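ARCHIVE CARD
SHELF: 3
SLOT: left
DATA:
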Amino acid sequence: MTNSDTLADSVVDQARDYYDSGDADNFYYHVWGGEDIHIGLYESPDEPILDASRRTVEHIGRRLDHRPANTSVLDIGAGYGGAARYLVEQKNFRVTCLNLSTVQNERNRRRNAELGLSDRIEVIDGSFEAVPMPDASVDVVWSQDAILHSGRREQVFREVDRVLRPGGDFVFTDPMQAEGVDEAVLAPVLARIHLASMGSFEAYRRFAAALDWEEVQIEDLSPQLVNHYARVKQVLEEREEELKQVCTDDYRERMKAGLDHWVKAGRQNALAWGILHFRKPA
């Protein structure tokens, strides 16, 4: 195993350990509302995070309006499974959730069972760098704000290509770095998430081109990244007393500092975010 492989494995392990921690689980579950832990599309600065996050899911979902009932979807980095439940309830799709965090996955399974959706949503513990599914087994791969946690992002694309059927769609969002970014501006963000770099619109286009995918649409929504992280910090501060009961002081203070780094880097145009939609050749 090379040093780069070891570092990439470490990134995966750190992501799993972080999201399985009680602090992180309680923070994301309580602040986001237990459905989505992804960047929202905000119509006002003080909008509930849950509403803005659901708007993102609905907006991405419209990219799949051409897909019929019983379309098979793989959600990589599925979190609490809110997108999967939306796709099942609103579009009558079948969804497999693949996620590193066993804690999130258990919450996902319990919620699906409560809603009677367990027969339409399968939840798998695993990594999107080595998807435990057969070749050409799904119609759509979906992902929200998860690929940044990989140290092998091009490998993630290769795995998506492997499991997609011909003509399949890959639609995803990801916090990214801007092209030609000042490394000093980005450094505090990378340190917070234990990464040496982030993806970019340009890098993801290159990965897709190498696989001969069609670029269906790329929507740059970068200002929403700043809106989101600013809103999350605001909610953290407004609900500080409540969160003291479920998150340690150290975690809350580190979260505030991390959110400040995201907002500052975003306002300096060092970060990017948007919806990327590619299609595998038929």
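SLOT: right
DATA:
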Amino acid sequence: MFTQPWADLFLSEINASGEYRTHGAHWDTPIALEMSFTTGGAVRAVVLDLHRGNCRSAACRVPLTADNVGLVIRASVAGWKRILAGRMDPVWGIMSGQLQLVRGNLTDLIPYARAAKALVDSAARIDATFPPPEGP
């Protein structure tokens, strides 16, 4: 999870998703998804270049330095497990404090809640192993 090979598969899944194409048709803000570990400090980040129902690129970047990334969402390994298992909606996770919106504004994400759910569904279709909570 959250490695470049995983990001490559995620890109393919997003672009194969009719749900994302429909609900993300007006989304044109790059987003970074970060996975944090219990040891602190270290994170894994995947930056998605989302543009009008397509994902132009998905890149594993650590550290995250892209100033043009409008939204950065961080969760622990356990948090991402809950999200990808369908037990937590990403927007609700931010509102409840279980996910951290590191950069951006929740009001910018709310109109794309269904697109965010389609991104989660795309990620959940990838057969991958989570790293241990304390980090790789």
